[in-house]
Predict the structure.
Amino acid sequence: MRASIAAESVAIPSVSIVCEGFAGQAAATARGLGYDGLPLAVTVGHVDAQATDEMTANFVNATVDDIIAGLTNEKHVDDVPSAEPAALEIAATGTIDEINEHFVAMGWSDGNVIVPPTRDRVERYLEGSGHDPWKTLGVSPSSGRDLTIWSIGVNAVMAGCRPEHLPILIALTEILADPSYGSEHSGNTTGADALIVLNGPNSGALGFNAGPGAQREGRHANTSIGRWLRLYLRNVCGFTTDEHDKATFGNPARPVLAEDHACVRTMAETVTWPSIAEQLGHRWSDDVVSMARMNSGVLIGSVFGSTPEDIVPYLADGLSRVAAWDLTHVHGLGTDQFQPLLVLSPLLAQTFADAGWGLAHVQGALFEQARIPARSFERFVGEWTNLTAGQPKLTDLVRTRTLPDVFAASEDPNRLVPIVTRPQRLLVAVAGDPNRANAYAFSNDGPHGWWTAKRIDHTPASDLVCDISFRE
């Protein structure tokens, strides 16, 4: 569609050809990019599930008519949405039950009970922050809607967030506005959902749980902010099934993963062990929120052993098991863009520190052992998907300098190759029960929600402060 928009911007008629299941998303994307009603030609059925003759017949009998209509400026996109309520408009009245029923019916709720975002509640939520409610942090590339402080507050009230969490929500919105994150991919078909990681000395005081039951619902801060993100993606960025959310199997909203700041600090006193925030370029002393989209996860339970040499093989196996289709982000959909996350319980992390292993040492050992047969890798990125043209062999990719030499140590199809291009691509966090030897491996969705981190600014804003100066 970007090619169509480039053509339309210079008055050249165009038509975007889209699959049947993506017509609504294509119309919404065009609207978000400022081209409401962009001509579309819809193909019948799923192209990967049709024989060539069937696909050709469907294209000739149906799609060609759409192409002709689009190029002759006959309007054929008829799913343009109705006007939305304005920011201060009363969208519904009634009892709390009636409000909740209306929000569910309109698609403004995640299905759970919400706090009605009345004007009074939103104003009280933002009161004292110093932020101009109409300040815009960016524009959603998926919906074209402004990302405003007011819209943050509306969804924060709905999710039950506390006012002291507003700076975190602002930082998260800055991530959504950052082109490097790629928020427009938040509804792709694999159903990856965002994981929020919180770092910093104030995480405990703000009510976040980094200990037993990390990521379990129940701790207000972790849960409500995770819920806020899903509501914001739905209501502001347009990720509903009617618009952009095309997940085949969706993941539930994830509570915030708070890294154990005290444990990381203790380890850093004996070995070099940067937090996730530091691994992503920030300082240990800052409060930082990081986010990436994850396809799936694997529990690595009851890790047995008292030395790093004992436990690395099991941890590496977990990382290998969680990486499958996602390897197209090592090569295919992108190159060198796969960055999985391993979350260690403090007990496991301390085992490394006690043996003098810093993070770089751990990453190097995992890189050496988190490997799969080359034949399996080639199937994931080429044979079992149509996302890599030509189904190249790893040896071909090394020959063209697309991948490093380690992927072609020999011609043996059963040789073991890494799941990432370099050790630093394996991120490691510390959280969870300090008395349990468990870990968790997340497989991320590459540039469809690239790891992006923002510093949290707790300083009250001065947007609403008058600047009075006197001149002689």
